[in-house]
Specification:
This protein has 2 helices and 15 strands. It is 24% helix and 26% strand. The protein has 331 residues and is of the alpha+beta class.
């Protein structure tokens, strides 16, 4: 089985017509979930890839490394991330990311293969809501979960079934257990299930441990032993296996991404503050000009009132002069 787990888990759109895709096979609806986001990648002028991603902070999404490669196998930033739990169809070019960071040890990921250390961190241009905090599993936590064959959940925007041609819409999820088997790729694990399986397009989706007190990201889905679109059951035990890259060893990259997102946010705040200062200065100039205008208006009003009184006095004096007889000349 280890030698067969090298199928690319990315749905592709060829040309301008959407290539039908949807979600995990045998799972349940995950519409509105805060944990998974839809991702589109412009791989070439005519080819768009579809992946999933894990929202771990308002500005940070983790996905599979092979999801951020163009058709030539080069890193691209033409990546578009939709709102968590929303339809893949709603992702537009306005959802383009700010930047991407990939593991320095990432290898492979092209020609329909899963890469080693297959992870990428995307920095978003605009934040998303994250009501529930997501923790990254440490290596010790990951080992403990594996030893306990803990229940895990896979979220993704993959196809709906192995032969399904339905158009991609909302995400789905399914539960499985942390397998005791170890993939040939380093820093990887298996999610095993007898009831559901992962499909093309689920790459980059989160593998989560969800308890009553904590949500922990254990890994990122990267591939499996594919049939046409979805993983095939192992003949020996009838179980489905999805391979994922464990997150524990990449907390430093997550920290770097967090720092970068904070720097991006800080730059945006500085720009907003600069714009605010400019507006305040303009407003102060306007207030000064308005005060000066009001002072001039008050002076003019005082002059007009003085002139009115002088005119009235002169008029009264003229009337008195003209009241005598004989009237003076000019009255």
């Amino acid at each position: 089985m280890k030698n067969k787990l090298l199928a690319l888990f990315t749905s592709l759109i060829l040309g301008v017509s959407p290539f039908p895709a949807q979600a995990v096979e045998g799972g349940v609806d995950a519409t509105g979930s805060q944990f998974v986001v839809p991702i589109k990648i412009q791989k070439s002028p005519t080819v768009t890839g579809l992946c999933s991603g894990a929202l771990i902070a308002p500005y940070i999404v983790v996905t599979a490394g092979h999801c951020v490669l163009d058709s030539s196998g080069l890193l691209t930033t033409r990546i578009y991330v939709g709102s968590a739990g929303s339809s893949m169809e709603l992702v537009t070019t306005s959802d383009i990311i700010d930047s991407v960071q990939i593991t320095s040890s990432f290898q492979g990921g092209v020609n329909s293969t899963i890469g080693q250390d297959d992870l990428a961190f995307l920095i978003l241009k605009k934040p998303q809501s994250l009501p529930t905090q997501v923790f990254l599993a440490s290596e010790s936590e990951m080992n403990a979960l594996k030893s306990a064959s803990a229940q895990l959940k896979l979220f993704g925007y993959g196809r709906y079934g192995d032969t399904s041609e339905e158009t991609i819409t909302f995400p789905r999820l399914y539960s499985g257990t942390f397998s005791q088997s170890t993939p040939s790729l380093p820093n990887s694990g298996y999610l095993e299930s007898t009831i559901a399986n992962a499909c093309s397009g689920d790459s980059g989706g989160p593998i989560l441990s969800i308890t009553a007190t904590q949500v922990t990201l254990v890994g990122i889905t990267t591939g499996g032993n594919l049939g046409k679109y979805c993983t095939k059951p192992l003949v020996s035990n009838g179980k489905y296996y999805a391979i994922f890259t464990v997150i524990g060893r990449y907390s430093n990259l997550a920290f770097a991404s967090a720092n970068q997102s904070m720097s991006t946010l800080s730059n945006k705040n500085e720009k907003v503050q600069s714009d605010l200062d400019d507006v305040r200065a303009q407003l102060e100039d306007y207030i000064f000009d308005l005060a000066e205008a009001n002072r001039r208006l008050e002076t003019l009003e005082a002059d007009i009132e003085s002139n009115r009184k002088s005119t009235a006095a002169l008029s009264a004096k003229l009337k008195k002069i003209c009241s005598v007889k004989p009237k003076p000349k000019g009255c």
